[in-house]
Amino acid sequence: MSKNAEVEEVEAEEEIEAEPEEEDEPETTNAYPCPTCGMLFSELTMCEKHAQFCLVPDDPGVEWSDERILLLIDCMQARYQRYIQLLPRERKKHWKMTGQIVGATGEEARMRWNHLTASYNRVRMAISQGRMRGNPWRFFNKMDKVLGDAAVNRPEFVLSSMPLEPDEDGSVQTGTGMLLPADAEGEMASTSRLIDIMEERYEEYSKLSPKNRKSFWREIGDVLKMPGEEVRVRWNMLVGSFKRTRQNRDNLARRYGREPKIKWRYYEQMERILGDRLNPTIPLMVISSRTLPPLSGFPLSTGANMLTASKPAGGKRKLKDIAPAPPKPSAPTSAAGTPKAAAGTPKLSKAAKAAAATVAAAAAVASPGSQTSVFKLGPNGVLQPLSQDDVPVASAPPVEATVLQAGTPQQQQADIEAFATKRKALFVEDYLRAKARREEQRLQLEERRIRALERLVDVMEGRVHP
User: Residue 290 in 3-state DSSP?
Assistant: First the structure.
C-alpha cells in the first residue's frame, strides 16, 4: 500500500471519530402546574379542580361544597392504599398535602374525611338491614369505590391524576403515577414572569380578536420557553383564581364586616391588571320603564325630526288645520315603515325624542295665550321654532314614551323603597290569604270531627238502648 493511501485512510478515520454521536431525545412528559402553589399534576382536569380550592382562606373554617367534597374523595381514592399502611404519626404529612389540594387545613380535611366515613358506614348498615332502599346519599357511590367492595378493583390510572411527588432521593418510581419531580420554585418564577409580561402587554392582548391571540401566546411562550397553549391555560387559571379570591374576599367582608387578609402572592399584581375591568360601571343616566302620560290639550306629534304642540283654546288655527307634508320618495324607510334619519342628521333615540317632546309641551304650557307652538329638531339636536315657510307635520295620537331620569342616589333609593313596599304589601296579602285558607281548613276538620263524635255517640246510645 502506498504512503498516500495510508494518509487518506488515517484522515478518513479521524473524520469518522470527529462526527458527533446522535443523542436520544428525552421523553416528553405532560405536567400541569398549579399557578398558585406550583404543585404538578399529570392531568389538566385534576389541576383545574385543585386550583379552585388552592387558596387557604384567612378565617378558620371553609365551606365544604359538593365540588370540594368530591375532590377530597378523589384524593383519598388515589392514595387510600398508601394511607392505610401509614402509622398514625406519619399521617400528619398526608393530611397536610391533602388539605393543600382541597384548599383547607390538614385538620379540616381529616375531620371531613372522618365525617364522610361515618356517614358511609351508617348508610351501608341501613341498606344491609333493609331499613333504606336505593341510594339516598349522593356521595355513597364515590365512597363505596374507596371503602366498599369496589375498592379492590381500583383502576391504576386514578393515581396519575394526583400531584407528582418525588422520593426522598429525587428519583421517580414506576407504577406510582408520578411523572416529574415537583419544582415549585421554578414554576412560581415562570408564573411571576408571565404576570409581569401580561401587565405590560394586557392592553395589546385585550384589543386582539380570539383568532389572533394564538400568535400572541406563542410569542410569550418563546420568552418563557414553554408551548403557547400551556401559557394560555396557565393565564386562564390565574384569572379564574383571581376571580374566586376576590369573590371570597367580598363574601368574608360582608359576613364579618372587615376586609380579610389575602394570602395569595399574585393577588396585588392581578388586581392591577384586572381590577378596574371587573368593577361594575355605574350608569350616569337611568332609563325608567314608566310611560309618559298624555297631556290634556297638548297631543304630541310623531314626526321623525319635528315635534308639535297644539295651540290652546281661543287661537286662530287648530292643529288639524295644518296640512301634512308629502312624503319624500328618496328618503329610505325601515322595515317597520318609519322613516330613517338623513345622512347629515344625527340619530336620536326614542328616549331623547320623548324628552324633547316633553320640553316642547312645557313651552306651550308656559305661554297659554300664544299661537300654536311648533318646533323642529335642528341638525345638532336642538329644538328650533318652525317658521311659516317650513312644511308642517301631521299630528298623531299620543304615544307612550320613555322618561329619561337622572340616576341620582335619592331617586334610586326612592325606587328601591317603592319596590320594597310593593313587594311587602304583596307578601302580606299572600300571607293573610294563606292564613285565612288554613283557618278555613281547620274549621272544616273541626266540623268533621264533631260530626264523627256525634255519630259515635248515636251508635253507642243505640247499643245501650236498642
Answer: strand
| Chain centroid to CA 161 | 27
CA distance 56 to 254: 18
Instruction: Please give the model's pTM, rounded to 2 decimal places.
Output: 0.32
Taking residue 106's Cβ as centre, other Cβ atoms within 10 Å add up to 17
300 bridge partner residues: 309
Q: Give the H/E segment covering residue 373.
A: strand 373-377
The set of cell numbers assigned to 32 is: 400541569
Query: What angle (nearest 5°) sits at the alpha carbon of residue 208, between those of residues 202 and 214?
Result: 95
The alpha helices in 157-280, defined as continuous H runs, are 184-207, 213-224, 228-256, 267-278
Is 204 exposed, middle or buried (CB count within 10 Å of its CB: 0-12, 13-18, 19+)?
exposed
56-85 tens-digit pLDDT: 443 445 567 888 888 888 888 887 877 777
Report pLDDT digits (tens) over 235-286. 888 888 788 778 877 887 787 777 777 767 788 888 888 877 766 544 444 4
Residue 52 CA to residue 67 CA, distance in Å, equals 9
